[in-house]
What we know:
Blueprint: E1 5-7, E2 20-21, H1 47-54, E3 64-66, E4 70-78, E5 88-96, E6 106-111, H2 119-124, H3 126-129, H4 132-137, E7 138-143, H5 160-168, H6 178-195, H7 200-203, H8 208-221, E8 227-232, H9 234-245, E9 250-256, H10 261-265, H11 275-279, H12 281-299, H13 311-324, E10 327-331, E11 334-338, H14 340-351, H15 356-371, H16 379-396, H17 408-419, H18 429-439, H19 443-448, E12 479-486, H20 492-501, E13 506-513, H21 522-534, E14 542-544, E15 565-566, E16 568-569, E17 589-592
Parallel strand pairs: 1-17, 6-7, 6-8, 8-9, 9-12, 12-13, 13-14, 14-15
Antiparallel strand pairs: 2-16, 3-4, 4-5, 5-7, 10-11
Helix pairs in contact: 1-8, 8-9, 12-15, 13-14, 13-15, 14-15, 15-16
Amino acid sequence: MSLTSRLSVSGVAALMITGALVAPAPAASAAPAPRAAAAASGDVTSPEEAERVDRVPAPAPAWYNCYGVGQCATVTVPLDYDDPAGPTVEIALLRVKARKPQSRIGSLFVNPGGPGGSGTAMAASSSMFLSDGVLDRFDIVGFDPRGIGFSDTVACFPSTRAQSIVMAKMNMLFPYGTPQESTFVKSVQAIGRGCSTTGATLAGAMSTAEVARDMDVLRRAVGDTKLTFLGFSYGTALGQYYANMFPDRVRALALDGVIDPVSWTGTPQTRDQLLDDRLRSADGAYRALTKLLARCDRVGPQGCVFSAGDPAKHFAAIARKLRAKPLVLRFGKSTFKVTYADFVSLVLSSLYTPYAGEMVTEIAASVEALLAAPGKVTGKQRSLASKALLDRLDRLRSPGRDFPYDNSAEAFAGVMCTDARHPADAASWPVLTARADARAPYFGRAWGWGSAACAENTWTVRDEDAYLGPFDRTTAAPVLFVGNYWDPATNYREAVSASRRLPGSRLLSSDNWGHTAYGTSACVTRAVDAYLIEGALPAAGTLCRSSMQPFGRTSGREVETDSISVAAVSAAGETKSLPPVAGLYPASMLPMNGG
């Protein structure tokens, strides 16, 4: 989740797609619809939703060549589907045409998550991460959801100056301690009030339901009778909203890094909980960290630089020291502080990557060395560790926000706050996040603070047409869910519970590391490709074994299978980069490339 700064981690791009294969992908054909069928009597779009979207004429995009890779266009859709002749919002699209038009199946819509991620950017980079078979058979279509990116954007402050004054007080990865928490609360309250006044017109119409309605109109605009969709992270929520609002208009929905929509929206019984008390992203991150440190201990110093002694105890000691006071680094006349929040956020960002084991333990070892008493570490070692740590923090911390107006915080909040139920008062977040941290050490606060702008006393704008369920419709074709055990953002349990809600859907599990699985696990990649192209679902209970494991070890008996069958091992597919997933990210961070 995110509120202020952009995050990227180097070394994530240009990965080999490696892993195990569920089963050989069937030969491609020009069949327009999946072979696998949902229940014989599926649900249909409600008369109310059908009236909303079907009375809107399908736009005719005026495509033009752009960015050297595809075609761009903008179309207008109703701001409020209950008032189709009223105000409109402009939506930006980018498509990359199928490479083998004679075998073209249709359009594949893509969404990188966020909320706030750019679908146009994802489509533009599709040749870098999608498999050749998918690129051959589909036009890849990305759109920036309303309020976001190149579409009409939400702005909750009257000027860049007014926004910068507020955001400057939030220039921390997450608040820790009473002074920081007090400042942070006042700042997020200013965001909530701004989006409920200055930005209210668009902020109150940015619910996921409105984006799903837009997507159904865009589906008709590109000439598809049913929707084919690949969504990551928050994009899995968009896919599930579409599946439940338009169940008879589904061709294939592949959802990787799953959010359970009931956890996302909350219920009357859970409305006073933090969003992450429902999603349990912090719990997933803590589980992944604990597993990494245990593996580090087992492989020893030959495989893990942080293995000396008990890694878990050493990690806890580092955190304890940084909570007491920051680490101060000096380079010439310059002084830099590394706080507890910096350390936790660096670790969490590293858990987003397939290289989580090496990255997390190298960060921990560097900080431990810098905290050591003089004499225990040489000056050269201290200098190298300091440089490596600060290089990582430079990529993590917030950039300057002066010009142009950066609406990242408003875009993220405009969806999350409008969609979901949240506690009433932002002043309750310090206590609630402390409780979360007790449940999920290190990460409870980091994740919990991400929704503070949504406190209902200050975020008062509402979308009367937001969708709150049900989320158990029978779709025209089965939905494929993908969840990996060690995802630090979208807890694996969310994939399990969400897949159980939709009749006829299928859960594909993976033991890869990082956020989402497509592109990291060849097994997952090939299974998703086969589903999108042929409608072929992986066998029920399939677990993909990824060869990309911490400390250079392949997965084995140590990975809990929970009675899930293990897929057969096969050679990897084409060499591709990771998808540019704009995954959920906690507190003051924006989506990272690859996670």
